Sequence to fold (425 residues):
Amino acid sequence: MRTRIAIACQGGGSHTAFTAGVLDRLCRDVLDTHEIVGLSGTSGGAVCALLAWYALRDGDPAAAGRLLGEFWADNSASSPWEQLLNASAMLAGDLQQFAVLPAISPYDNVLARSAADGFRAMLRRRVDFDRVEPGPEEPVLVIGAVDVLSGEFRAFDSRQDRISAETVLASAAIPTLFRAVSVEGGTFWDGLFSQNPPIRELVDLRPDEIWVVQINPTRRDVEPRTVLDIGDRRNELAGNLSLYQELHFVEKIDEWLEAGVLADDAGYKSIVVRIVELSPSRVRWSLGARSKLNRDPMFIRDLIAHGHSQADEFLTALAFERAWKEQDFDAVLSFFADDVRLSSTEPFPKTGPIRGISHVNAFIDQHLSSAIIDPTRKQVARDRVVWTVKTSSKSSGARTRGVAEIALRGGRITSLTLGPSAPGH
Fold:
């Protein structure tokens, strides 16, 4: 039986070209073992979710990558005039950090309307919205937006709402670029102000797993101190706020089920959460609030390529996890590079660091044979893949929780570290 998964795509402007690369790989490479029962998205994530959903509902998953690639190529600033507008948009984003701009409406120019019309046209060239009728069929598409007048969050759901180009524009209507969009009696702004992306609606589909494509980085290694860095970090934290809240809801239900606080017949089920995260350190461009407006063709192509590589590592990690769970240590061994670095600290027995494939068998026997993946916690792929694991002492039987981290290169594990859980794990 295939694993039921739902995929949630966080918004983040041009940075969501990364999501296009991720979805291209997932739609082509996981459907033999996984069934995609739903996709959700906000802003740029809604665009990517829409195009992948449209391909899947037509039974043509290979078309997802083509539709996503065509959209982002179409959206790139390829002509000299578009490149000038692109540079102007990013400059305006910088100026907002340093100075108070004139208090005029951003909609009092012809470009505001033409940008919205162009956005609709790009979607309609790829999606025949006349063929999209509300219905219970899977996969389900959920698009997040917020009603700027009532303040209510809205999740447009393909089971009961007609999905249109206006629906997607409502989710992507950044108020400094687009006027609020009127859809189904509401007046909507960008979904970044609401659920980014919708998660709770995906829970209703009773998936086995929810995979999140995360655009805003979880952590930074250096304190932001310049005006631009402070503004960028505020933007990232604001973009992650609703995501963390919704994932906490899922994880809390998982913990209550595991602890027996919720009965098995209470209508809930345990859901594994996995995250594929954009890694700024692996992109040659500086990423921040201003670059979310960047439509430079090379920038877009690099983000799509990064999405491909992160998805590849994510899928390699899934295969490693499967071999680990099945205690197939011959398969586990095959994932390690010859020069792998191994180390462990509390709550695991202290080992190393040691280097080389010759040490792997002993390390597996000492550590991985007694460690199990905790299904109530996340697997994350950014610079490293991280699992929360439980391990029991062979002598006392006492069970503790820690983390396992791997780094990958060319599909092989170059380092494996076992150690304590970080705050938030």
About this structure: Residues 40 and 142 are 4 Å apart (CA to CA). The first strand starts at residue 3 and ends at 9. Residues 227-259 form the longest helix (33 residues).
